[in-house]
Protein 1
Amino acid sequence: MIDIAYAEWLEVGFRWLHLIAGIAWIGSSFYFMFLDYSLQPDKSLPAGVKGASWNVHGGGFYLMQKYTVAPEKMPDVLHWFKWEAYFTWISGFSLMIIIYYWGAETYLIDKTVLNLTQLEAIGISVGSFIVSWIVYDRICKAPIGKNDIALSITVFLLILLAAYGFTHVYSGRGAFVHVGAMIGTIMVANVFFIIIPNQRIVVKALIEGKEPASYLGAEGKQRSTHNNYLTLPVLLMMISSHFPMLFSNKHSWLVVGLVIIVGGVIRDYFNAKNQGKAGNRLMWQWPVAAIFMSILIVFISFNDEVKVTEDEQLGSTDVLAIIQTHCVSCHAAKPSDEDFENAPGGVRLETLMDIKRYSSKIMKQSVLTKAMPIGNKSEMTEKERIGVGDWIKRGMPIDE
């Protein structure tokens, strides 16, 4: 077990790096998609130039030009955009190790879902990232890859299938963040295995005085576009651990699908706007996004009303015993759980007064979303959750 102080500092450091690199990568992705779509043809442009775009920022004017394949001669200085993506993945995978691999029994494994050992959970995780990239890459290179709509639907179904699989292997929290990590891995692999290598081939051809193959740029553009449309859904998935309502639904793989649709539709609006589109091309995205967001909210918020008969109602003594069994190992002045040095969030649940004080949090985390106990390490039953929730709804009466 790694010392808690070092673990926390490692998490803070890599999380900060993840944010910094992610912001840089997303910013460059959004800008270059805008630039590509905003290009305007002009007869006065040099031969081989597809179009140009005038930009103003910071008190200055910029003229951006894009060559259909490449310029006739290599420029003396060429800026590459790759380390933003690489460090986003490196820092993200480091966080996966620090939080979900070292703390697999707490954050990743839920024995009520699948009884895994730590090594089995980690092995499935790493293997799924590798397999997902191979399958995605093969699909893109297959004949279906030439049809953008068919390819998009296929990739969407691939992600849904993976999400469904993760929910039957890991805890709700672990499954949801793994979907985001899987998509993020595919996005970075696009940069590492396709976009940058293709650009290197083009540069090498220019240096040798040869004409680069046109498919190299087209393939890179296709993968870059995929990355752009997946960015918004991935952002929400990667912060999902802070919002148990997203991953606690028993059909959270459908939540993934709705998030991808909403994020992709919103991204399409901005891409179309950057292309100078107007009218009907810009009128459908926000209404559609609002409809699917409403479906998402209703889907997440719906809970079956479970009636508890008077004979099955719990008293305060019963509730205290349940909380002490399932919650106090973490939420105490001196937690007995080795993963925690202090009570998470400062929440202590050692007495009935503590329970009443934090009843709304208990209702949200343990009854409605079932996010706690983390990974359900203590195997809290559905009957216990329902009983505690019913006791809270009845005003938390104290046994006489």
Note: The chain has 14 helices and two strands.
Protein 2
Amino acid sequence: MKIQVRLYGTLGNHLPDHDRLTGMVVDLPQGSNVGDLMGLLALSRKKVGIVSVDGSLATESKTLFSDNYVRMYQPISGG
């Protein structure tokens, strides 16, 4: 199944196929979840702050379906 992924901040810097404006399309097996996607993209949980799937907040256990739009944001800190 094909998933549209957009990574924000520095998350996509190590992925040559990731475009900062449009993201990238990732092919995953049926039944995959957000954690599987993070593993495929070599993103550890501490590198990812917030994940949304089709505009709703999601956890690593959220099951993905074909044509989902996933956004991942790096943690932000400071003051």
Note: The radius of gyration is 12 Å.
